[in-house]
Amino acid sequence: AAAVDRVTTCEAHLTFVLRKPSLSISEKGVISVQAALYGRADTDTCSEGRPVGQLTNTTCSQPGTEDLVKTRCDGKKECEINIRDVATPDPCVGTFKYLDTNYTCLPAIHVVACEGSLAHLFCAEGQVISVYGADYGRRDETTCSYRRFSFQTRNTLCSGPTNKVAELYAYKTFGSSLFGDPCRNTYKYLELAYVCECTFSGLHLNHLV
């Protein structure tokens, strides 16, 4: 089984970043979130310098945290989450909280294609494409930013998972007409992860090309 890595960010820090767990994992890999919690499950984590009264509630958990982190991070090489996105409403006023995420690396092919360009998904003959996760929008200012005005890359909260990739062929020109426009005047891109599946004697096997 793949090793599980853990990232914990205390409430005082506004963002945390998930990257590939370790250098020993294949370059052909993406994030797979196993569990995520915003709140407090013990008295030790993120406890330095905090009064006892802020640490005693160990049953504090924000509903929906795991789903949000999975949506933002699954299938990505790297992802960033603002803790403010999971902190409201406050699940336990007076308790010092943290965002705790367990994740591993899933072998997959990672593709990024800029808006209006060709998305190339390729598998060998006899194999079929199986999409693990896809996201259309913008999550940072650097991806697909060449020769773009600053206002076109400024909105990094323009992002959302899409199941439209299942309808793509090996080559497909895409844009807002296919996925809808989650943020006007922002230059967007498609980010996805997939594997190539083979069938031998009724057994399904995953292969990377």
TrEMBL record:
An MF annotation (GO) of this entry: carbohydrate binding
Which intervals hold domain SUEL-type lectin? 22-106, 113-197
Q: Which is an annotated Pfam family here?
A: SUEL_Lectin
Would the keyword DNA repair be found if you checked this record's keyword annotation?
no
Q: Which domain of life is it from?
A: Eukaryota
Task: Name the keywords, alphabetized.
Answer: Lectin, Repeat
UniProt-listed PROSITE patterns: SUEL_LECTIN
The UniProt entry, under CDD domains, shows: Gal_Rha_Lectin_CSL1-2_RBL_SML_rpt1
Name the record gives this protein: SUEL-type lectin domain-containing protein
Q: Lineage of the native species? A: Eukaryota, Metazoa, Chordata, Craniata, Vertebrata
